[in-house]
Amino acid sequence: MEVCVKLSAENIFTTHKLKDQEIYLCLIQTTEEQPEKEWLPAYHFHICLLDGRKIGECNLRVGHNDKTYLGGNIGYQIDENFRGHHYAAKACKLLFVLAREHELGYLIITCEPNNIASLRTCERLGGTLLEIADIPEISDMYQVGKRKVNIYRFVL
């Protein structure tokens, strides 16, 4: 099932409220869908501490298709010096707010089975493990060395 939303001036939601007691998400850019690559429209953010220091990045892909089933709706990375504080989970919770505004209903987050930190993040967020999937050889993910992913579903 493919669900896709075009991001335009009319439906890009304000993101200034995407913050909690420790972090905020600073919008870097939005990107439009590229159907020929099966890329969905997306928001891209810096993850920042309230004092303004950038500690990582995250993104939200808006919609669902085969590519987001394997690659996820949310991607994140936390800079090494700031790991261990659950900042990835906190950023994901903020992205859940934005996803609800887009009326997505659910999100997929995937991670490699040996990525213990991301596995814990998905568990901390209350995701349901759907499966551990093999990456098809034709996938972009396979081309960069990924062979399996844990696929978690989050009901919004």
UniProtKB/TrEMBL annotation:
User: Which keywords does this Swiss-Prot/TrEMBL entry list?
Assistant: Transferase
Entry keyword tRNA-binding = no
**Organism for this UniProt entry:** Solobacterium moorei F0204
What is the protein's given name? Answer: Acetyltransferase, GNAT family
Which GO terms fall under molecular function for this chain's record?
A: acyltransferase activity, transferring groups other than amino-acyl groups
User: N-acetyltransferase domain spans which residues?
Assistant: 38-127
**Signal peptide positions on this chain:** none
Q: Which InterPro entries match?
A: Acyl_CoA_acyltransferase, GNAT_dom
Is Transferase set as a keyword in this record? yes
Tell me which Pfam families the record gives: Acetyltransf_3 (PF13302)
Which stretches are transmembrane? none
PANTHER family recorded for this chain? Answer: ACETYLTRANSFERASE (PTHR39173:SF1)
